[in-house]
Amino acid sequence: MKKHFFKSKEEVLREFSVTLSGLSKEQVEKSKKLYGVNELQEQEKEKAWAIFLSQFKDFLVIILIIAGIISMLTGNIESTIVIFAVIIMNAILGTVQHLKAESSLESLRNMASPKAKVMRDGQKIEIHSKDIVAGDIVYLEAGDIVPADGRVIESFSLMVNESSLTGESESVDKYSEIISEENIPLGDQKNMVFSGSLVTYGRGVIVITAVGMKTELGKIASLIKDTKEKATPLQVSLDNFGKKLSISILILCGVVFVINFYHGVNLLDSILFAVALAVAAIPEALGSIVTIVLAIGTQKMSKENAIIKKLKAVEGLGSVSVICSDKTGTLTQNKMTSKKIYVNEKIINVEDIDLNDNYQKMLLNFGALCSDASSEGGKEIGDPTEVALTNLVRKFNISELELRKEYPRLSEIPFDSDRKLMSTLHKIDEKIYMVTKGALDILLKRVKYIYDSEGIREITEEDIKRIEEVNYEFSNNGLRVLAFTFKNLSKEKALIKEDENDYVFLGLISMIDPPREESKEAVTNCLRAGIKPVMITGDHKVTAVAIAKEIGIFKDGDKALNGIELSAMSDEELHDVIENVSVYARVSPEDKIRIVSAWQSRGKICAMTGDGVNDAPALKKADIGIAMGITGTEVSKDAASMILTDDNFATIIKAVATGRNIYSNIKNSIRFLLSGNMGGILSVFYASLVGLPMPFAPVHLLFINLVTDSLPAIAIGMESGKDDVLEEKPRDINQPILDKNLSLKIMLEGLLIAIFTMIGYYLGFKNGGAKVGSTMAFAILCLGRLFHGFNCRGKNSMLKLGLFSNKYSVLAFLVGTFLLNVILFNQSVGSLFEVAKLTTSQILYIYVLAFIPTIVVQVCRFIKYDLKEK
Question: Which of 317, 366, 691, 711 has a 20 to 30 Å separation from 863 between CA atoms?
């Protein structure tokens, strides 16, 4: 079937068996059965209780639940309460985050027009938009929201803003004539209107061609529903890490259980010993600490104009290797600005305009007079192109309002989409001038004379060729061009369309939506960080390439594709060329998803920016979806994981740097937790092998994991980070968070802590029995891990990092040490934690033995890193 823009309006009316008198009641019911109703299908939301229960699927959590049940059965109520408190707290945190998820389809539904004027049974009536059916004749006027997709039957200067669908802010002129090209992008289908668009000017009559889920808005709703969110690299890494750790713990616990049973320990105590080891091995607070560190990161980013909706996106930003960015408003200012003029056979930059030159002054004055826009008190009113003309004269301290007061408009022919012209009449220096502006291709056919240094003379073929060459040069540099003509009338009169001929050509004014001042530097930083910036826009290819070249996105050898060219490519072809394509123009929502998917298929972490409804599916599909806070629709904000409050590309690069530092901090926190836990595991495992009594009570291990571990881990997560983080390349997503290098460091540091823990255990066991030995082992492990928190702040020694450069680390150490001392010195509290009373020399031994591993690590750091960097 031919597309409706490719059909004549008579053909479309015949297809739906309707006339301008509208549908009958019978036809309405038939249309509902045939084409459906005008409503977007709602996606069924997951129940809160189901989300809560899903939080317990994690293998580490299952092991903890089993450990908690065994603790309860063996009478360790304190351990049971603490274990289940941690599990429930993590589940609540996860549920709350999930319930903040998208309501994209709900936002789409809210975009629908509540009322619409239709013709039914020969009468014009107003009905709710959900009652619109395919074939309805609908009347539109300025201020209306288009209720469904339709073919324009009549247009009276009809202009529609389709920015929510195409991403381009300028209103589109609509007409009823047939379009002869069969394959054209949505933004060029000028005889069609689309659901959710806003009528900004004029009026029109349309026949509805698609309703509900079959509209362009409905197709986007389907894409959002069908698009699956991709897990961030951290989620993937932590999931893999959790599975491997769980399997290792189960194997280790099984081995310990068998060894103890072999040594003659009874079955119940062997089980309890294995459970204690599981508790020691599992970093119970890891999930909460990662969440807290990410939450702290979101606060930091919010101060930098980046609001994070989904916590995992904070870390995901640090992995980004491709940023697909919208052009209008993100890379550019979203404000048309005059760039160059052509008058008296000269191309002149706006900065070089000389008002002492009569030709240049005349062109600027005519631009302000033949315009309806105004700029007053910092408020700009009117069409963006006309605002650019008024801002141009204001640049030279000329007020368009004063100019119009001095030379009032005597008559006018307003702009309309058929003529593509606007004409006004003014009395200037006792002469009557008719001034006309519009598209060059239209005006040039009506020009008979030219005004240059020879005065007003007949225009020649050479003049026309030169003007066309200048217009081509401007257009090829992405500039939008307006032509200005005039003629003198013998007397004042009411202008009619027949007057628009026999003009004198005056000149051209070109304009562009210029790049943001900070865009060029941001793109440079982007490339420095090993990230490829890609421009995706609804604008034309020539304009997009011109802007991309200016800010450094498009370089020699790069390619640009438009929507038609992209659609003609197979996924394999796109996969092969995608790394060389820097600009995509006139693309559809499906195209954007294909672009993101193609990058992801190459193993890249892809960020996508957008502000329109058309961007929502790709924002959801991307690893990091970034919506615009100022110009963005609610739909795009719902689908995104991050919102820019300043709509600025430079903010993304700042967020990338923050994301990289946060990932580094999370990795350091994990290192701290696991190396400390490794100290506990090796101590328990050693005691089991040699047949010693258990060195720790379960409550000891829970106190260490949940109190003295949590505070330093959070403090490490608040480390300010490196200044040169953008010099690094994006990390490989296939690289696990626990790589060989980190695993070796964790093993060695854990072994070091375990050695001095067991030395303390032997000292206590020898001089006071098993309980004193257990108390000293607990205190050394606890304090040793608190000292170890300083080791995990970065790769350098504390001499380089500075002890007080992270005040939270110092505070965490002091609080942890205080709580440990309360347990050791206060007998009533100590009895709850199963600790023995210690002598002064034993307390001294604890502090010395706990501090030695940190001294060893710090000396190694100084030799390996600090000395090399000097």
Answer: 711
